[in-house]
């Protein structure tokens, strides 16, 4: 094989790759273009239900206060768990017990995650509720 044949073959391959690359790019552009959302199907009976949370129910304010109180207790429990875990780590290191230090680290991690979820919980539930309403 001589160099001229290889050069011509390489040029043909490059031209083919460019052509197919442009076609592939156009196909990808069409595939990635967002299509409009399909219309929501109506129910077979023709009745569409739109159920939304109702904050005017009797006892709703008392229920909200009760849930807020439970969250406060859970946060206090998480803080107590954090302090106890720190004490376990300190005692484990003092007595040279690596298992106690490991348990203490797990307790710290669990307490911090509990605090994170308690703080973000209401917003996470609302976020998921809004996602569910889109279906």
TrEMBL record:
Pfam families: DUF6112 (PF19607). The chain crosses the membrane at residues 70-95, 107-129. Keywords: Membrane, Transmembrane, Transmembrane helix. This is Membrane protein.
């Amino acid at each position: 094989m001589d160099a001229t044949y290889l050069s011509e073959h390489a040029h043909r391959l490059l031209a083919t790759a460019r052509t197919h690359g442009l076609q592939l790019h156009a196909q990808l552009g069409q595939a990635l273009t967002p299509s409009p959302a399909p219309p929501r199907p109506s129910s077979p009976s023709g009745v569409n239900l739109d159920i939304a949370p109702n904050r005017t129910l009797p006892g709703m304010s008392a229920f909200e206060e009760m849930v807020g109180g439970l969250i406060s207790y859970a946060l206090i429990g998480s803080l107590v768990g954090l302090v106890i875990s720190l004490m376990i780590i300190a005692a484990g290191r003092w007595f040279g017990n690596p298992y106690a230090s490991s348990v203490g680290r797990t307790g710290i991690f669990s307490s911090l995650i509990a605090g994170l979820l308690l703080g973000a919980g209401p917003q996470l539930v609302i976020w998921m509720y809004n996602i569910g309403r889109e279906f």
